[in-house]
Write a structure and sequence with these properties.
By secondary structure, this protein is mostly helical. It is 69% helix and 0% strand. It has one domain. The chain contains four helices and no strands. α1 packs across α3 and α2 packs across α3.
């Protein structure tokens, strides 16, 4: 039970198909980004609690499956935590004593330490 191979496609057709795939994927990515921005806006409004069924209602409004909204919310949460971790790391690096400062303080007997500054 073997399947016959189709005939080779000429270069012009292959190029047109590739361009069509790129356009189709770009449109899908643009729609996904727009949806993601809407989901962020809805779920980050200040002072509003999420109620049961909000994600499902939003999914129906946007014409997507509720799991899509759930994935978008999870992505937003993950990105938020990564941003907070990044900010903490930057803050930690700023507080880390500079090597030159440590050398300067080791040369002189002082009641101060590098962490005092």
């Amino acid at each position: 039970m073997s399947k016959e191979w189709t005939a080779l496609t000429d270069h012009d057709t292959a190029v047109r198909r590739a361009a069509g795939r790129r356009r189709h994927n770009a449109n899908r990515q643009a729609k996904a980004l727009k949806r993601y921005k809407i989901v962020l806006d809805v779920f980050t409004r200040s002072g509003e609690e999420l109620k049961r069924g909000d994600a499902a209602r939003l999914a129906r409004t946007l014409g997507v499956h509720p799991s899509t909204i759930s994935r978008d919310r999870a992505k937003a949460t993950r990105l938020m935590f990564e941003a907070v971790d990044g900010m903490r790391e930057l803050k930690r690096q700023r507080r880390a004593p500079d090597d030159r400062t440590d050398v300067a303080f080791s040369l002189f007997k002082s009641p101060f330490t590098a962490s005092d500054f």
